[in-house]
Amino acid sequence: MKFPTTLLTLFLTLVVVNASVQHEQAIASRSWHSRRHSSVKIPSLEKKSSQKRCVRRGTKTDSASTSTKKATPKTTSSAKPSPSSGSSKSNNSGNNYSSGGSSKGQVLTASGKCGASNAVAKTTKTSGPNGSIQFLNCGIDAGGWTPPKVNMKDIVAMSLTEALKSGNSPFKACSSYLQYFNKYGAQYNIPPIMLASFAMQESSCKPETVGGAGEQGLMQITKDKCGGAPGGNCRDPDFNIHAGAKYFAATLDSLDGDVLLAVGQYNGWYPGLTVGKAEAAKKKGCCRCQQNLDYLQQLFNGWLQNINAYDADLGLYFNLASCPLG
Fold this sequence. Notes:
By secondary structure, this protein is mainly α. It contains 12 helices and 2 strands; from the N terminus they run H-H-H-E-E-H-H-H-H-H-H-H-H-H. It has helices spanning 5-39, 43-52, 60-71, 133-136, 160-165, 178-188, 192-203, 237-254, 259-266, 275-278, 280-283, 295-300; strands spanning 111-112, 115-116.
């Protein structure tokens, strides 16, 4: 049977078109699968990759910075919080006294309401490198004590380490506790020799000492400062020196670095104190409850110069001389 030419041509055209469409669909399908696989992420491979990434190791600078931040304690040098080595205020001394002091031959150059310091390089009974007793005790014989403003950095003091090198140093009595004076001196930025001077002045560096009003140990701290003492022993040298240093640093900070006022307050002095007020306790039957009117002369021009203030008989008033011992 013969097909008309027109029908045959139409049939062949349809066959060719159908084959072309199927070919294009196959190509499109492969292209889609290719795009899909290129965008699929395999979690297990990503996880392994991240685990193999190197953790950034700190450089020396990083390590130093981190350790500094960790080592910096909170500032605690006030009456309520405890002072510490990280205090930026740090008694306004401007100096690091962890091992040093001022050089020999220097004198304090300052003045106040009572005039110039009248300091002399060599200690006498009533004067020395940190000024005369009239300068230190300004006003105590009249209207009341008004000490001149002096900062720690201005004070003339020997290094405790150097003091102990001399054969006749009074601080030999404190040598067993040197580590604590150095430790807490550095922590609170107070000359270690000043802390040791408090101990010599208050207790002759004898840890078993109990004062007339119940003061405790080397630094003769009052019982209200004994909280947290190991085993309740407020006379423990480490605890006692720490408590004394902490109290003095807090006092110094509260007084904006006025070291004469702070040292006086350690012995119960206060602005406006007079001779009569200082001696009032004696009349009430507690001789050793008096403020020592020679305290500043003995500490600043005696102990801080590596001089035994008691053996040298430093002072002018000697209001405790008649008090019975013990």
